[in-house]
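user: can you give me the structure for this one chain? tokens are fine.
assistant: on it. calling the predictor now.
[tool input]
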Amino acid sequence: MRTIATLMLVGVVATACDRSGDELEQRVLELQTVSAQKDSLIEEVMATTQFVGDLSADLAAVRALNAGRPTATQAADVEGMTPAELRATVRERVRELATRVDQSEAQLAQSRARVQTLTSSNADMQGQLAAFDSTISSLQVVIESQRAEVAALSEQVLGLQLANADLAQQGDLLTAEKQQLTSTVDVMTVESNRVYYVIGTADELREQGIVEKHGGFLGMGATFTPGRTLQTSDFIELDRMRDSVIAFPNPEKAYQLVSTQDTRYLATQPDKDNKIRAALKIAAPEMFWGTSRFLILVER
């Protein structure tokens, strides 16, 4: 009988020891799980915090590019990126940051529920749950701060978009003004280069009022001067910077300059009788046409 009782006692003690070992192993596993959950949450929130810092640096680079004065570090960060590409990257990162903050908050809630399930059946683990809850509360404060950062960064991106739109509008306005100015300059250039010439006999030009006859006796010794009122419709139009040679209608005839242009600026000077033959060739157009836009040549 004593032998049977002893065997039964040994069995009870062994069973108790086995049960105690199982419980201890279970507690160790739960502690490891809680610790792993805590470490994972801290790493996730720290990574998001770093993401906020990087995004702030990107926004500073965008603002510097818009201002036209990036620092050396910012220039290196955005090397190879246009301002438009950088702004697009920042907008995408703001959206990603908002998603990450939401995910971090959801992970906090899931981890809290899982740890609650692990520890609810064991009074000794309630202290671990309280410590985990303290970590959760601290991380939630950080996440709320990150959410405020997301809102602030979103406002900054919106401000940059509005500034960019304003700059684009100003650029379009400047482009339009430049085009208008260029068109005005072109018109003014064409107008300033527009000159006129006419060639004819003395009688023809007098009848048209282009020249006037002064002095002379019996048709001898008369001089001719330009008419008081000259009409562009009676002349042939030229571009003084392009048309430097005026061919005469009759190469065998000689022609005399009646208008006030200075013959010193011709490539070929008149002869001793102040007559020009073959063609009129202009060497310095700006100087030649400086005294009058109307050139009158009388056949002699």
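assistant: here you go. The chain has two domains: 18-189, 193-299. The beta strands are 194-201, 211-214, 223-226, 236-239, 245-247, 254-257, 275-277, 279-281, 294-299.
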